[in-house]
Amino acid sequence: MNVLYFQHVDDASPGVACTLLMFYLMFTSLWLIPTLYFVWQVVDWHTPERGGRKTTFVRNWRVWEHLRDFFPIKMVKTAELNPNKNYVVGIHPHGIMGFGAFTCFSTESCGFKELFPGLTSNLLVLVGLFRLPLFREYVMFTGLLPVSKKSLTHLLTNKGKGNAVVIVIGGAAESLASAPGVNIVVMRKRKGFVRVALELGADLVPAYAFGENELFKQVVFSEGSLGRRLQDLFKKIMGFAPCVFVGEHMGILPYRIPITTVVGSPISVPKHIKATEEEVDHFHKLYMEALSKLFHEHKVSCGLSENHELRII
């Protein structure tokens, strides 16, 4: 159970536990350990936005293969990605815990390197996770990096070519809409990733994780309700939203539903350092159209029926 729980791409709970542990140790005979670590953390503060400390050893842990096989999770390639280019990959939907995104792009268990030789993937998540002591080291070892402009600029300029930066576009807002049978992505007003792609000359690639929304049954509060207002308030303060959900086996484990992450064709994007709003809107529209096409072309083969529709809000 713990193995699965730790994989939520935006889950700060383990990090909170690490923080509480470190502060507890401050008031024990082991106070020197957390003191030295906090000093180290201050010195190392900007490392996450400078590429982090991804290690092949952690990304190849056998436990990720067990995680992959539990559902199971697989990745489907629909087009070649040129290793002499850089890419901004949008992964949808967020789901409750983002198992598909993490397993496919932050571990080697789904064969990313074999499917896309010459490319390196980095999944970008909440900046706040890298402020949590100890936990920040773990997430960096897996290749997770903060979703910030500095981080994107470093990966898409200082790392040369062959980089695939993966962003969960819908974020916490999308997680609140996650439920079995629901295919909602939040992105109509989210254009920052397109602007960055234009500024840095990176092609856009849509990806959809079929099955992600089926893993838990969530209590979806209606707009304006007290529950939804509390969720929105928490999201505004903390950056992620607390979801009320249940799974299998005492409501803890996710349902064993296959997750198929389909990676679409690249959308060629020119490099315009000072892109106009019209250019941003143009490529944002192309991206939404490509995502919708990807969804409808693969929904039946990935377990959905013909009458399932993709709703972009």
UniProtKB/TrEMBL annotation:
InterPro entries: DAGAT. GO terms for biological process: triglyceride biosynthetic process. It holds the Pfam family DAGAT. It is an enzyme of class 2 (transferase). It is found in: Endoplasmic reticulum membrane. Its EC number is 2.3.1.-. GO terms for cellular component: endoplasmic reticulum membrane. The chain crosses the membrane at residues 20-40, 123-144, 164-186. It is a multi-pass membrane protein. One of its GO terms (molecular function) is diacylglycerol O-acyltransferase activity. Keywords: Acyltransferase, Endoplasmic reticulum, Lipid biosynthesis, Lipid metabolism, Membrane, Transferase, Transmembrane, Transmembrane helix. The keyword Transcription regulation does not apply. Belongs to the diacylglycerol acyltransferase family. This is Acyltransferase.
